[in-house]
Write a structure and sequence with these properties.
Bound molecules: zinc ion
Largest sheet: 3 strands, antiparallel
Helix content: 25-40%
Order of helices and strands: EEEHHH
Low-confidence stretches: 1-5
Strand content: 15-25%
Number of helices: 3
Strand order of the largest sheet: 1-2-3
Number of strands: 3
Mean pLDDT: 89
């Protein structure tokens, strides 16, 4: 599955009242919902939405998240300048991460743990 466009069409960006990180359970800093489309095996376009959360723990080592983590990690209240920065940082972050796919080796190891009842 590949995206049919490189443009990030944001639908919603939230920085409050967010569910915990689905990867580690920690509080996330931001959640972005955006249009997502791909071609299925028959070559037909499939459109929908995708939501990605920014986690200060899971994304700490990700260079694509560094700008957002720096901004959101140091401010308590977002003023107009922060919102302007977010308007640039969020699409850049999503543009860098949204085409990532799971590492097949990590996925296989996780599946093995799940099948063994250890996950
Ligand atoms: Zn996390």
């Amino acid at each position: 599955m590949t995206s049919t466009t490189d443009h990030v069409h944001l639908v919603d960006v939230r920085t409050a009242a967010l569910p915990p990180c689905q990867r580690c359970g920690a509080a996330v800093l931001l959640s972005a919902r955006y249009r997502h489309s791909w071609e299925n095996r028959a070559g037909a376009a499939v459109t929908g939405f995708k939501e990605t959360a920014l986690c200060p723990t899971c994304d700490a080592e990700d260079p694509a998240a560094a700008g957002l983590l720096a901004l959101l990690g140091q401010v308590r209240h977002l003023d107009a300048a922060h919102l302007t920065a977010l308007g640039e940082l969020v699409p850049a972050w999503l543009g860098a991460i949204r085409h990532r796919t799971p590492d097949p080796a990590e996925l296989a190891a996780e599946e093995a743990l799940w099948r063994a009842g250890e996950l």
